[in-house]
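Researcher: Re-running this chain for the archive, since the previous output was lost when a drive failed. Same request as before.
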Amino acid sequence: MRSLSLAVLLLAVPALAQDQTFPSTFQTQNIATNGTTIYVRIGGKGPPVVLLHGFADTGDMWPPLATVLAKDHRVIVPDLRGIGLSSKPEGGYEKKNQARDIAGVLDALKIDKIDLVAHDIGNMVAYAFCAQYPVRVKKLVLMDAPLPGLADWTAQLLNPLVWHFNFRGPDVERLVKGRERIYLDRFYNELSADPSKWGEVARNHYAELYAQPGAMHAAFNQFAAFSQDAKDNQELLAKGGKLTIPVLAIGGDHSYGPKMAEMARAAFTDVKGQVIAGSGHWLMEEQPQATVAAITGFLSPAK
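Model: Regenerated structure tokens:
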């Protein structure tokens, strides 16, 4: 019966995920923790699952998945430090520190163990969380982004598609100010298998959020922290070894594809790989039905 109801819910996921609206049953909360304030959406009942977004979007990327998971999970969707409706402090963008943000959110909600789903920079925060709090994570989904300092990170830095990893300095904010839509369009267009999957509503929505005071400054700081993140990850791996948490590593066939599983195996021992056809980097936007099905199938209890 559960598989039938899940199938019905998946059919309701639109072919193009352009709606950033969560179900009306979700509530929002601002949680002060670790020297910042994290904006969180919460809905559903059952085992808790946390969804972590990345750059060029916010927690608003997750409604297609959150809607399905909320049927039998308690779904927690934060905006990362400095992004979306979370506060924008000057520092603290090292992913090891942002993992502490997430731990603080969970402590405030009196949640211990979770499933964890992440995309892009969310992957990096997710690994730092797992490495520091391994007993708190039951299952982990990593989507289409590398982990600083691990696997072939140096080669990743030479990939021209990630030129923005090192786009910073005294003039970058002045160059982008008032042109946030133009800047973000570059990522939506170049990292998609089909840029038309990104509609005007979604593009304008995120451009408005990233045009908030301090938002782009914080976004650049996310990337500026990568060099420290690489050192932190290498130290975490050396100290704790590879983690045994079950992992689903998902890549778009026009992006990281099967390489996602290879990269994940640098830090985890139990890794299942899955490639989503017809997708670039933006799995939830480009192929929401297939992506939601892959995640929910992995998180479902073993039969």
